[in-house]
Amino acid sequence: LILYNIKGEDAGGRLIGEHVSTGIGRPHFWDRARYYGEEQRLATALEAMEKNAG
Predict the structure, then answer these.
(1) How many other C-beta atoms lie within 10 A of the C-beta of residue 17?
(2) What CA–CA distance (Å, rounded) separates 3 from 1?
(3) How far apart are CA 18 and CA 8, in angstroms?
(4) CA contacts within 13 A on the Cβ side of 1
(5) pLDDT score of 8
């Protein structure tokens, strides 16, 4: 669903980067989310990731 693009390291040796969406619209666990009543929350989270990626 998301990748971490590494841009480099800071002075302390920690990685610097950003999370980006892979663009997968409907992950394989969608039906499980529906079963547990979490389909709408999952859809909202995926939509938010897409907006932030664009």
Answers:
(1) 12
(2) 7
(3) 11
(4) 14
(5) 97
